[in-house]
Design brief:
The complex is a heterodimer of chains A (about 140) and B (about 210).
Chain A lengths: L1 H15 L6 E8 L8 E10 L5 E3 L1 E3 L3 E12 L2 E6 L3 E3 L4 E4 L4 E8 L5 E8 L2 E9 L6
Antiparallel strand pairs in A: 1-2, 2-8, 2-9, 3-7, 4-10, 5-6, 5-9, 10-11
Chain B lengths: L2 H28 L9 E9 L4 E4 L4 E3 L8 E6 L6 H18 L7 E6 L7 H9 L6 E4 L2 H11 L3 E5 L5 E6 L2 E4 L4 E6 L5 H12 L3
Parallel strand pairs in B: 4-5, 5-6
Antiparallel strand pairs in B: 1-10, 2-3, 2-6, 4-9, 7-8, 9-10
Helix pairs in contact in B: 2-5
Classes of the chains: A mainly beta (about 140), B alpha+beta (about 210).
Chain lengths: ~140, ~210
């Protein structure tokens, strides 16, 4: 009976697939590097499905030489941008990277392809890989 | 949870959502702008700008007369800014498009003054501004000359190293309005929203 229960539980967990992945990226938007600029901004929502807070300490991308996490604040009418050492995603919670707030700064693109792959690390552990496809240009 | 408790929880959730929805709706309608609540702060009297010597995005000399003949929406930013600057310029550009579609005449001119003249050369400014529509003006030059303009307009900017050779620039987020006589006329504080410009600019643009 026990074996059946455990097997069923494992099967259910497997069938859950992406919905039960520990860390999920959604609402992803990466701006195209603008003419003359060697930099893009990345916005997304990171959801943590586990009972333990996750601290993303590094983001990388094969399409860019370097990726940093920054936060915009506007206080007393002054816009400032500060680099963040980590992105904390609370247990069973989420963090939003959006215009006017936290965002990824992706610097010096190395190719002109149509996709950007993001790799999110907590320390040395790769927590999540997400590939974004630029929407087709509409003028 | 038993089925009865589940049902009660479900009904409570619906009631809570409806309550929140209604209160948000009521709040936003009581805060909609009226004539007295324009998003544009107009100075008691237009204020002349000091003399300055900058260059525009074609590399042509631009002094304090460069604003003449237009209602100018002037934003102080830099092209290496990934978030606030493109977002603000996008809002201004979208607002201008909406005003144009509504038959507004004259239309305002969008002006970007660089607070990062080291990296923002005329060529860089030209390419960047083209991204936000036509007929925009870019001003850059020496920091000393830029500070003549920002000082008179109460605009703050300061370079902030990030890592290696990289740096960001802290800067005021307001959009300033310079009238067709080249005077400082008013300002709009952030966060910048298309509706505010579309609703409140026509009164300013039509005031003479």
């Amino acid at each position: 009976m026990r074996i059946v229960t455990v097997t069923l539980a494992l099967l259910l967990a497997a069938c859950g697939g992406a919905a039960h992945a520990p860390l999920i990226a959604s609402d992803v938007e990466i701006t195209r590097p603008m003419p003359g600029r060697e930099m893009s901004a990345g916005f997304l929502v990171l959801t943590n499905n586990t009972g333990t807070p996750v601290a993303i300490t590094r983001v990388s991308s094969p399409q860019f030489e370097s990726v940093e996490i920054h936060e915009t604040t506007v206080t007393d009418g002054i816009a400032r941008m500060r680099r963040l050492d980590e992105l904390r995603v609370p247990a069973h919670g989420f963090t939003t990277l959006e215009r006017g707030g936290k965002h990824l700064m992706l610097m010096r693109p190395v190719d002109e392809g149509n996709t950007v792959t993001l790799q999110f690390y907590a320390g040395d552990a790769l927590q999540l890989t997400y590939t974004y496809t630029y929407p087709t240009e509409t003028s | 949870m038993g089925p009865k408790n589940l049902f009660v929880a479900f009904v409570l959730a619906i009631a809570l959502s409806a309550g929140i929805f209604l209160s948000v709706r009521m709040q936003s309608s009581s805060e909609s702008p009226s004539a007295e609540q324009s998003s544009i702060f107009v100075l008691p009297a237009p204020s002349p700008l000091p003399a300055f010597a900058l260059v525009d995005q074609r590399g042509e000399p631009a002094d304090e007369t460069v604003f003449d003949g237009y209602w100018n929406l002037v934003f102080f930013g830099f092209t290496h800014c990934p978030d606030v600057c493109p977002t603000t310029l996008q809002v201004l550009s979208a607002a201008k498009q909406e005003l144009a579609a509504a038959g507004q005449s004259p239309l305002p001119r969008i002006v970007l003054v660089s607070v990062d003249p080291e990296r923002d050369t005329p060529e860089v400014m030209a390419a960047y501004l083209a991204y936000f529509g036509d007929d925009n003006l870019g001003l850059t030059g020496s920091e000393e000359e830029i500070r003549k303009l920002t000082g008179a307009l109460g605009i703050y900017f300061d370079k902030r190293p990030t890592d290696g050779d990289n740096y960001s620039v802290d800067h005021s987020a307001a959009v300033l309005i310079v009238d067709p006589d080249g005077n400082f006329y008013g300002l709009v504080s952030g966060p910048h929203q298309v509706e505010n410009y579309v609703n409140d600019l026509p009164r300013v643009l039509g005031s003479r």
